[in-house]
């Protein structure tokens, strides 16, 4: 199966009746296998690159005091932690809130444990939702100032649905940020990206000891479109894109895309 075929695998039904593609079911299984070792490989083996990319990303996002932050595909909660740490340092912990959404209960359980004893949870400023980015029915229209999806969008089978949901749940003028591996549009960029993902794959395989699951994760990451293609998807979803539309992070190996929900959407959503 090619990467492209893998990224567009057909829909299947799950036991709870939620429409979910075969790719999504596969990814969910892979993330369950990965959950218990995710932070270890993320912070120790897969190079401090991931941590650097997240901190740098938060500096670029630069959330204002008191904003409502959606951490989509939150995984084990790294970006939500970065968000609150940033608020502490830059904004003297103004009463901002974070909602963590993830499809995978095992990943989200780790996020709950990691954030569980923090003042942010104790103050009732954190919410955890097990849900699908393509259909986040638990969240009302125009709820968030920031929609952040870090290394999660490549897992989504119908990115158009996820982006349409992002548009719906953002307030008018709200911002979307999506971080993914960056191939660039040139040949060497593609080779570099593939080598990086292969390297991470090697590290994951060694950690979780399951090559099938690692291959799934690898294929999924490689199926993400090039920056110009993804920027077009953002525009098609209705986001305004300024300038180049993305910033390079992690020494150019990743890209942080951004877009704004037009203010005039306020009358519609
Ligand atoms: C590579 S992890 C990234 C986690 C976290 N954002 C980080 O940067 O550490 C990808 C996450 O996307 C989640 N995911 C995959 N498909 C999803 C979907 N359709 N809706 C919500 N989360 C999804 C997975 O369960 C997994 O936790």
TrEMBL record:
Record keyword Ribosomal protein present: no
Stretch list, region Disordered: 1-21
Family matches, as Gene3D superfamilies: Vaccinia Virus protein VP39
CDD domains: AdoMet_MTases (cd02440)
Key words of the record: Methyltransferase, S-adenosyl-L-methionine, Transferase
Stored PROSITE patterns: SAM_MT_UBIE
InterPro entries attached to this UniProt entry: SAM-dependent_MTases_sf, UbiE/COQ5_MeTrFase
GO biological process, one term: methylation
GO MF terms, alphabetically ordered: methyltransferase activity
Family matches, as PANTHER family: 2-METHOXY-6-POLYPRENYL-1,4-BENZOQUINOL METHYLASE, MITOCHONDRIAL (PTHR43591:SF24), METHYLTRANSFERASE (PTHR43591)
UniProt protein name: S-adenosyl-L-methionine-dependent methyltransferase
């Amino acid at each position: 199966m090619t990467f492209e075929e893998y990224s567009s695998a057909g829909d299947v039904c799950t036991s709870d009746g939620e429409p979910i593609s075969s790719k999504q079911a596969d990814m969910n299984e892979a993330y369950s296998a990965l959950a218990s070792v995710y932070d270890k490989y993320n912070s120790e083996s897969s190079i401090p690159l991931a941590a650097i990319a997240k901190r740098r990303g938060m500096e670029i996002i630069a959330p204002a005091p008191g904003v409502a932050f959606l951490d989509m595909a939150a995984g084990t909660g790294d970006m939500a932690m970065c968000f609150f740490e940033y608020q502490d340092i830059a904004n003297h912990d103004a009463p901002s809130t974070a909602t963590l959404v993830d499809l995978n209960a095992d990943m989200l359980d780790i996020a709950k444990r990691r954030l569980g004893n923090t003042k942010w949870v104790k103050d009732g400023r954190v919410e955890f939702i097990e849900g699908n980015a393509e259909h986040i029915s638990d969240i009302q229209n125009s709820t968030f100032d920031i929609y952040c999806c870090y290394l999660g969008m490549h897992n989504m089978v119908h990115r158009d649905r996820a982006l349409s949901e992002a548009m719906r749940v953002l307030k008018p003028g709200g911002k979307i940020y999506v971080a993914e591996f960056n191939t660039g549009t040139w040949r060497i960029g593609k080779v570099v990206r593939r080598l990086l993902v292969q390297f991470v794959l090697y590290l994951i395989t060694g950690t979780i000891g399951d090559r099938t699951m690692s291959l799934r994760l690898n294929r999924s990451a490689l199926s993400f479109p090039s920056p110009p293609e993804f920027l077009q998807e953002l525009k098609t979803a209705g986001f305004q894109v300024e300038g180049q539309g993305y910033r390079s992070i992690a020494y150019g190996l990743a890209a942080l895309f951004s877009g704004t929900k037009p203010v005039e959407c306020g009358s519609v959503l």
